[in-house]
Write a structure and sequence with these properties.
Thrombin, subunit H, six-stranded antiparallel barrel, 7 strands, 10% helix, globular
Amino acid sequence: MRNREKTKGKPFNDGLLEFGQIKTKRDSTKRIIGEEFIYLGRLYFSIESIRQNDFEQYGGKNKTVDLKLSTYFTTDVEKTHKIKIASDVYEVTGIDPDADRIKMYWYLTKIGVIEDGIGFAKIESRS
């Protein structure tokens, strides 16, 4: 019965996100030569509209909600993970599961892009 419940409603067909961590790359002399995205998992998602309440709850002085997504509920993701969609990298501002723990909503802030397929470049602060 639970599988039938998951198929009801809007399908998650807007894209595929990857979650992971940003790790510092070093050369043989331990000098920092860049950063890279380390893949830990992936989820299909749907893009949701951002409400004013979402901006107030998950935004802040130095952060804004750039993207709101929904996915199936999972316990594999932590708020400290970074999210990669295509070449864009996002920080998780908030995760909000629904009451039935079938779906979860993600509030994301863009922090950079993946360059040359593996290197990570931060975007400048938006003040």
